[in-house]
Every structure is written in C-alpha cells, then in structure tokens.
Amino acid sequence: MRPEIAVTGLGLVTPAGHTADANWAALCQGRSLAAPDPELAGLPVDFSCQVTGFDAAAELGRSLARRVDPFIQFALAAARRAVADAALDTGTWPAERVGIVLGVGANSLGTYVTEFCRLGEDRPERVSPLALPRSVPSMAAGEVAIDLGAQGPNFTTSSACASGATAIGVARDLLRSGTCDIVLAGGSESARSRMTATCFTRMRALSRRREHPQLASRPFDAARDGFVLGEGAAVLVLERLSHARARGAPVQAVLRGYGAGADAHHPVAPHPHGHGAVRAIRVALEDAACDPGDVGLVNAHGTSTPLNDAAEAAALTRVFGKDMPPVTAAKGVIGHALGAAGAIQAAYTVLALRRRTVPPVANFESQDGDHKLDIVAGRPRPTAGKAGLSCSFGFGGQNAVLLFTTDCREPGAGETT
Q1: Catalytic site includes residue 161
Q2: Could you read off the pLDDT of 358-398 as tens digits, one per residue?
Q3: Catalytic residue among 49, 161, 180, 408
Q4: Residue 393: beta bridge partners?
Q5: Which candidate in 18, 275, 336, 371 is catalytic?
Q6: pTM for this one?
Q7: How many Å apart are CA 142 and CA 106, to the nearest integer?
Q8: I need a labelling partner for 217 at 20 to 30 A (CA). Which of 91, 126, 150, 277 fits?
Q9: In whole angstroms, how far apart are CA 96 and each of 85, 90, 249?
Q10: How far from 358 is each of 15, 26, 165, 179, 383, CA to CA, in Å?
Q11: Do the beta carbons of residue 85 and residue 237 sit within 8 Å?
C-alpha cells in the first residue's frame, strides 16, 4: 500500500506575521492587511498586502540578504522555521535524501525591470552580475538547499497561482516513490513591483478601492472587484509517516490527497462551470479515499475577482451539493501571494485542522449568483471535521487541490518503508 505522508513542520513569512501563531491570530481576526504601498505610489492601484517587520539582514546575515531578492529571502526564512518546527538537525540528517521543491510564479520582477532600465540607457557595464542569480525563479530552491545542505532533488514548480500547491503535490510523489526521506515543499513570492501591479491593473484583475484598501479584498462577496497583491512564503516539511515516527517527530497532519488538472479553456479566465477545478477536487478526494462528507472545511482559492470566485463556487457546489462544508479564504486578510498562495493556504489548512477552527473571510457581507457557499464570516467557527481541502487555481487553467487530515493512522497501517 502507499505510504502515508506526514507534515512535521511549518514555516511562514506573510503579511500576517512571521510565525504560525501570528498568522493564525491575524486570520481569526478576519481583517484585511491591505495598505498604501510606497513601491506603487502614483499608480492607478497603489496599495498591497506587504510583509512588514522582516529584517533580512538580521534573519539571514548581511551578505546573504544583499545577494538575493526578497522572494528568496522569504523562502530561506520560512524554510529555516519549518526545519526548526520539525525538530530536524541539518548537521545529521541524510542530506542526499532531502529534497527541496518550491513553487514560484512571478518572483521579484523588480530586479528584471531595474537591470533592463540600466541596459536601456546603453550602459551594459552597469548591469549587475548578480541580476540572474538574484531573480531566476529556481534560485529560491537552490539557495535553500545551499543554506541547509540539502543534496537531494531540487527544483521549482511554476503553475501560476497554483505553483505552491503543485510543489507540495510533487513533493508527496518524491516521498511515495522512495526517492526522498524528507522534502521541504512550498512556495515563495514577492511581486509587489510596479510592473506587476501595472500589468494586473491593465488586465482589470486588481481591486481599485484606493480610498479604502482594507475593504478591497473580499472573496466571494457580491461587491468584489478584484484581488490585492500580496507576498510571502510558506514551507512545509513532509516525510513518510513511518520515517517521522521512527525519529520521534511531531506529526501535525497527514497529506492524504492531491489532485491536479487543466481547464484547457482560456489563457487567464477559468472555465465558468469550474470543470477543471471539479476534476482536481474529485481526484484529491479519490486519492485520499475520502467522501465529500468527510471534509470539514474548504480553504478556497478565493481571489476576490468576479470570474474566479464564481467559477470556484460553481465547482464546490457540483462536488458538495447541499452538504457544503464551511468555506474560508485567506486572501481577504493577506491578499494574493500568487505562486506562494497555495503553499500559504496549505499551511493555514493544517493550522485550522489542528485548532478545529475555521477562520472567517474578511469583508464578506453577501453572496451573488446561483451557487451559495457556506462562507464563514464575522468570527471563527468551530469544526469537528478531520479533513480539509485547500484549493489553488491559476492562469492557463492550472488547478491543484490538496487534502489534509489529522486522522493519523497507527504505524504499519497503510505503510510501506
């Protein structure tokens, strides 16, 4: 039988804070963290959800912090936190059996724009020799491996806003196949550049509530008008359950299901009936040997855009029908971290299951359309469910769904070594 995959550590760096407890407290308050962003000053959309209070030099050392872009800085900090949370010793772990898989979407376009402008001034000698190592998406995973001494498979997934969730699914496969004993998986992003904001504004994807940015991100609300740029990183430590228990590791949850697939419909718009999302959810449920009724909460993608939320609501309705579990969506609080969003959601889903609580959706007042979800609003809601779905969808019709549970089987039950 297939081995069970345990989550033994979590590391987070988000606009909600740099620890699991800080993130959880902010989620349960249910208030948006959007604020005016000096980096975006003067643009039609000049606000975002920013990581604040993060001192890269203090976290990583001045030399390393100067060498890498913010999305790599966040990944390094989150990975270190996850390793500590999992009670791992990087000096004694089996380095060749430790893999790194990180999802990155837009990374830090600021470096590309800065160096391109220098080149455009016909001054190639001013282009930094660190331009590529600072900003190539794969360097987040590469720098984490260097920092921690992890010598196993090391690569980056890029499936738009599903990248972080895809990375966790791929990591599961590395563990199930026996290729790795430990995998650090997640995602990182810092795309609050003027170019990114301008591109999304031109696509009419961002909310334009400049006067009230705290009210801008409102997943599934009838008055939603677009998402809010966010940033951050989340890294999960994954191991086979037998391996985790053999070393006495803290098991926080089990990753029991993963489903992925494509809409094959449109470059940026989701299928209006959520066909690809439905397949991904059902594959995750089948992979986990779970019925829809076993799911106690859904951590929705919930971008706060009219089309995406409507398609996701349609997909969830098709899968769950009248037995809809409580639905939350973290982007109301922390904005949309693009390629890191799925990883951050995965970490939040684990926290929600462990605390038996579903955080509220920020700024939610009422739903529109024919598909009515059981949105948790106003205050957190207790849940007795042992399984939680985390849904991530992205440009190109990318769909990735993860199913976690706190129902950890006893050693030997469904286990192979």
Answers
A1: yes
A2: 999 999 999 998 888 999 999 999 997 889 999 999 888 89
A3: 161
A4: 399
A5: 336
A6: 0.95
A7: 17
A8: 277
A9: 21, 12, 20
A10: 19, 13, 20, 35, 7
A11: yes
